[in-house]
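Morning run. Coffee first, then this:
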Amino acid sequence: MRQAKLTRRAALLAGGALLAVAHARAAESFEITRSDAEWRAMLTPLEYKVMRREGTEPAGSSPLDKFYETGTYLCRGCALPVYPSETKYDSGTGWPSFWDALPGAVATKPDRRLFTVRTEVHCIRCGSHLGHVFDDGPKPTGKRHCLNGVSLTFRAA
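And here it is:
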């Protein structure tokens, strides 16, 4: 009987924690905001899943992974310039990777899904999920911004 109470208590605590995380995300304010219906209308189902629900596109599926033209990568959600082509490199992961973002263009937060803590990166202006940042990138930063290509567009220089 005691074990059932602990299980119920754990479930209630976990549910409360999930609600707190959802509330914190909803409480974030961004310069550009849209209703869920507006986001769904402007994005494909995969773009919506990645950008608004923090999903991930399949590795190797983005044409931007092996794309190395000179220019700027923009947030698909609001067209904010987020990454310069000069910081793009081939990480071999199957996702577009950069060693740095443009100043003031992105923000990060802890991502505690998948039983580990990763660093999620999102657009500072509209909050769209771009990908994750890891500490295994090249110099000079040592960072790998591993991004979903569906979250980005490209503007040639």
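Residues 11-27 have pLDDT under 50 and may be disordered. Good start to the day.
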